[in-house]
Amino acid sequence: MFPPKIVDLKTSELDKSSDRKAGKFVFKKKVYIDYHGIKSARPLFRFSWCTNNPGAVVDWQQKWPGTSFVTVDDDYWPEGEMPDTSGHYVHLPDAILMKIPIDVYLEQRKREIQRSENAPKAVVKSLHDEYKASGVDITDEQAEAMLGMTK
User: Fold this and answer.
1) Domain span at 125
2) 63-82: average pLDDT
């Protein structure tokens, strides 16, 4: 199943036979990361799979400053995934697991949501400006009806 659940290795209880570097874990108690429930399982990161090529990784790191690879040294494991020779978690050859600082993620999502909510207003304003340039004044309701935005 993709994407796999992320196991919180700090909160989980591992058997001493586990081998983190090999990606082999034997659990006495397994705890998945959880942003809503158990406080101890709320990471300071948002996990996401990025396209596994250098250009995509650079784009990802520019969009989400502070983003880094999840490695075998981190306290997180994508269930069922084995690390590659660099210690990164790669799903097949085309996806690599990244961790985005939660504060960066939340701020970016807030900006994206604001842009999304403001987009309809910008379209209505653009239509107003277009009609006004032609010497016609229309109401917001008329502009929304022309754009199919009425409920």
Assistant:
1) 107-146
2) 93
